[in-house]
Amino acid sequence: MAAHIDGWISFAHASASTPTGSPETNRLNPDPTYRIGRLQSANKPPVSVKPDAELQQAVTLMMTNDYSQLPVMTGTRDVEGIVSWKSIGTRLALKCSCILVRECMESAHELSIDESFFPAIRAVAEHGCVLVRASDHTISGIITATDFNDQFRKLAEPFLLVGEIENGIRHILHGKFSDKELQEAKAPGDDEREVEGVADLTFGEYIRLIEDKNRWKKLRLEIDRVEFVARLQRIREIRNDVMHFDPDGLGQSDMDVLREFAGFLKRLRDVGAVQRVRP
User: Domain check: are 106 and 202 in the same one?
Assistant: First the structure.
């Protein structure tokens, strides 16, 4: 069971036959489905208008709030339709009467707050927006393409930053070490694995490779080795959370670490501090 951080939850006494798990078990076994109820917009009751309101009121609300559409409702559970710039423009272009909201509205499309992201993406792509109906049957929010764009940016950014950092480290290490040194960097007990280049090493093995002072000198980086290695250790921990889909997600401080280090590696490349090895 999952809920938005600002959503309402209730507690009930479990019966004797109800299986219970430890907090750690529950944390490691979250609901595997990513549901639209996790979106903030799905938990924010939308601004609405009544069907007999003047269209001027709806237009004013849409303009002042920078909305593209408004639900047309007679109560928190009762949806009559949707009024949007598209529905208004279509009727005006056809010289239809557009005095009241009901004369310019279209059918509304709804999804349960427990629906997964993928049907919701298709619905929003087809209809422009969907209304979200909560478990108590009230309309708890409205979802548009902008909400999905924001959410996917949050989900994708850690993976993209980790990839950029890892490629940046490989760029620094490429061509600087012998085959013997690369083999020696492998984790203990992993002797059978073939390592033909830097790309075959794990992130932890990058660290093992440059922890040694003599190997570090081969990079010809005029920066502090201890501080650089310590930051790589922190990146490695964050990377593990990202790649193992930590159910708690990344905190803002971890995201800041990834962004700052990715930026640092880019600055090293931009100023020519990372020396290229000629083939």
Answer: no
pLDDT beyond 60 at 1: no
Same domain, 142 and 179: no
What mean pLDDT do residues 191-206 have? 89
**DSSP helix/strand/coil, 198:** helix
The mean pLDDT value for 12-29 works out to: 49
239-247 long-range contacts (CB < 8 A, ≥24 apart) are 239/162, 239/165, 239/166, 239/203, 242/158, 242/159, 242/162, 243/162, 247/27, 247/28, 247/30
Cα–Cα dist 62/56, whole Å: 10
Give the SS3 label for residue 35.
strand
Token pair belonging to 65: 């709030």
**Which are the contacts of 54, defined by CB distance < 8 A and separation ≥ 6?**
99, 100, 101
Q: What tokens appear for 250 in the block?
A: 């990344």
pLDDT average, residue stretch 86-103: 94
Q: What are phi and psi of 70, to 5 degrees?
A: -135, 140
Q: Does a structural domain hold residue 167?
A: no
Residue 173 CB: number of other CB atoms within 10 A? Answer: 22
pTM above 0.85, yes or no: no
Tokens of 24: 């750690």
* Beta-carbon contacts of residue 221 (< 8 Å; ≥ 6 apart): 172, 228, 268, 273, 274
One domain for residues 142 and 44: yes
Q: What is the pLDDT of residue 25?
A: 44
How many structural domains compose the chain?
2
Domain range enclosing 181? 174-270
Q: What is the DSSP letter of 26?
A: H
